[in-house]
Every structure is written in C-alpha cells, then in structure tokens.
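Entry, Tuesday afternoon. Goal for today is a structural model of the target with coenzyme A bound, before we commit to ordering more compound. Inputs were pasted exactly as handed over by J.K., no edits. I checked the ligand SMILES twice against the vendor sheet because last time a stereocentre got dropped in transcription.
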Amino acid sequence: MKHQFVICTDRCRLRQVQPDDLSQVLSWRNDDRIKKWFVNRSTISPQQQIIWYNNYLNNDNDMIFIIEEKSNTGSPIGLISLYNINPESNTAEFGRFMIGDFNYRGKGLGFECANAVCAFGFGELGLREIHLDVFEDNTSAVGVYKKIGFTITGKRLIDNKALLTMVLEYKSEIAES
Ligand SMILES: CC(C)(COP(=O)(O)OP(=O)(O)OC[C@H]1O[C@@H](n2cnc3c(N)ncnc32)[C@H](O)[C@@H]1OP(=O)(O)O)[C@@H](O)C(=O)NCCC(=O)NCCS
C-alpha cells in the first residue's frame, strides 16, 4: 500500500519502501543466507520484483517498511512488514522480516523493530491478532518472536522441514471488568 507511516524505535526508523530501495532489497532477498529461511526460496529476478512492487503499492492490506539504523549514516539495514491485514477480523500476518546488513545482526535490532511493528499493528491499525510462520530451526527468529510474546500454535512440514505457526494476541493494559 502507499503509506506515509514512520515508526521510530530507540535505534531505528521504519519507513515506506521506495523504488530506490528495490535493488538493495533484491540483493538481500536473493542472498542464500537469507532466502533459505523463507517458504518461497526461489531467486527473484528484477522483473519479478517490479511486478511484486507494483502489486504491493495497489494492495491496501499490505504494509512494508524499510529499516534504517539511525546512527552512522542512517542507511537501510533491513525490511519488515505486516500483510494480509484484515480489517474485519482485525488480524494480520507478520513477515518479510530481515536484517539484511549482517553488520547489524545480533544487536537486538531485529527484536526492537519487530516489537515496534507489532505495537504499531495493535495501536494504529487496531489489530487483535498477529500471525507468522517460521522454520523451527531458525533459532534467531524464533527467539525474537518468543521474546515479543508470540506463542506456538501449530507445526507442519514443508519440504521435510518443520514450519511453526506463531500467534501474538493483543493484550489491553487495562484489565477488563
Ligand atoms: C531473524 C533476524 C531478523 C533477527 O535479527 P537480529 O537483529 O539479528 O535479531 P536480534 O539481535 O534482536 O536477536 C538475535 C540474537 O541477538 C541477541 N541479542 C538481543 N539483544 C542483544 C544485544 N543488545 N546485544 C547483543 N545481542 C543481543 C538475541 O538474544 C538473539 O540471540 P539468539 O540468536 O541466541 O537468540 C535476522 O537473523 C535475519 O535477518 N535472519 C534472516 C531472515 C529471517 O530469518 N527472517 C525471519 C523469517 S521468519
């Protein structure tokens, strides 16, 4: 979707993905060390990516953010999104999540951004439930999701690999009477 939202965390700024970001996003997405963690592990061509991006802009239920690290140059370090946003059931999927610049891995930035995007989904979009799929052996990602509060609700095999379904429910800070 065309959106103007900006999410600020302590160390990052999350903003709409722009045409200028596409070549960087493509090289992250096609990196073997990253694409191996996605259900669709095929290599994406620049032409396929342009079609994907145009579809994205016309899809009101899909919100992608580029992650910029605020210190240093503020340059893009990753991608994160909420998609299949359903305003009737107030649910969405969390995904397309990567810290593509390996210099910024393992510093807590993935957790910081994923947590902020979920809070944004609950606070700004009125979501009540966020779902995701993650391979069971993706320990970094599973660790980040558990730290946020996601719980495992399902497990199935894809190409002989265990894929977990995890869910995060909105919790009101005010106890309901
Ligand atoms: C999943 C991913 C986004 C996590 O990003 P990240 O920024 O490295 O994640 P974090 O730094 O928040 O957490 C990762 C590790 O750093 C540790 N960490 C957290 N805060 C830290 C800090 N302040 N200092 C040092 N380490 C820290 C965490 O404990 C975690 O350790 P673990 O792997 O032993 O559990 C990243 O690994 C990635 O891009 N993977 C490839 C794509 C992918 O798998 N996407 C998810 C598909 S479902």
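Strands lie at 7-8, 12-16, 63-69, 76-86, 91-99, 129-135, 151-158, 161-169.
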